[in-house]
Amino acid sequence: MSPSQPLRTAALRALIVSVIVSGVLGVSALLLGSSIVMGQVLFTSLCGTAASLLALIGALGLERGGRAFWGLTAIVASVFGFGLLTFGIWVESRTEFLGKLAVTGVIVGTVAAHAVLLGLARMRPEHRWATHVTRALAVLCSTLVLLALWGELSGEGFWRFTGSLAVLVVAGSLLVPILARLSRARHEVARAGLGAQAQYCPACGQGIQERGEPLTCGACRRSFRVTFEGEAASPFQ
Questions:
Q1: Is 51 in contact with 35 (CB distance < 8 Å)?
Q2: What's the angle, vertex CA 149, arms to CA 158 and CA 71, rounded to 5?
Q3: How far is Cα 80 from Cα 87, in angstroms, rounded to an integer?
Q4: Residue-wise burial string across 120-151, b where 16 or more C-beta atoms lie within 10 A, e elsewhere
Q5: Is pLDDT above 60 for 146?
Q6: Which residue of 55, 95, 113, 134 pairs with 74 in a disulfide if CB–CB is 3.0 to 4.6 A?
Q7: pLDDT over 90 at 68, yes or no
Q8: For residues 232 and 226, which has the higher predicted lDDT (pLDDT)?
Q9: Are 98 and 88 spatial neighbours (Cβ–Cβ below 8 Å)?
Q10: pTM for the complete prediction?
Q11: Distance from C-alpha of 169 to C-alpha of 175, rounded to nearest angstrom
């Protein structure tokens, strides 16, 4: 069992519980009428749901080679940010600084989880530029938003540029799974011609050029043998 397996299990259980609680509270608010306390409880549950989801994605990143930094960042930042939001909704003496700190944690955790999801796409080496470019654009866009938050930057030109970056991030996020699907199609063609020959490392997803068995990944240095059964693997693992 991988070291991050207990963390992923705990995040998944917390996500399930928080979703159920949020649903029950939402229905109760509609049927019985809302109140300040019920609104606070509902908001707390929603924060727990979001934090659990991002932590679950982060735990998945910890299991894959080369994504531990983004995975750990997603877990720490999301728990920190949503934890501060939950604290702020219950404490009357909340400050603007506390709010900015909470939003910063949420933004950083979301961007890190997005980076983990991008890295899960199994693509041919010549297509991996899309992952790197989209990840860099997301970091740049979030950095500008945080600068505006803390430095109170403004101006039509600034927000036009930031919005343009956000559009490119969305486009790149759509392009990555498309390229992953194309890589899978080429993999299926290569599989038909080469037989039981791996094109990607099952541990880290890097492309493999060598032949024979056992195969050794040049990135993570793990060795393995390949036996194909049934359908080809999904481009997301």
A1: no
A2: 105
A3: 10
A4: bbbbbeebbebbeebbebbbebbebbbeeeee
A5: yes
A6: 113
A7: no
A8: 226
A9: yes
A10: 0.68
A11: 10
pLDDT band for 198, please (50, 70, 90 cuts): low
Query: For tokens 């029950």, what's the residue?
Result: 24
Q: Token digits for 24?
A: 């029950």
For strands 223-224 and 215-216, give the pairing. Answer: antiparallel
In one-letter notation, the amino acid at residue 187 is H
Residues 104-119 as b/e (b if ≥16 CB within 10 A, e otherwise) read bbbbbbbbbbbbbbbb
The residue behind tokens 């890589």 is 183
Query: Residue with structure tokens 């069992």?
Result: 1
* Cα angle: 118, vertex 124, 126; to 5 degrees: 95
> What is the amino acid identity at position 7?
L
> Cα–Cα distance between 132 and 123 in angstroms, integer?
12
Range ranked top by mean pLDDT from 17-21, 41-45, 116-120, 202-206 = 116-120
pLDDT in tens, 103-124: 999 999 999 999 999 888 877 7
Whole-number Cα distances in Å, 146 to 10, 55, 56, 95 = 30, 21, 24, 18
Q: Which amino acid is at 224?
A: F
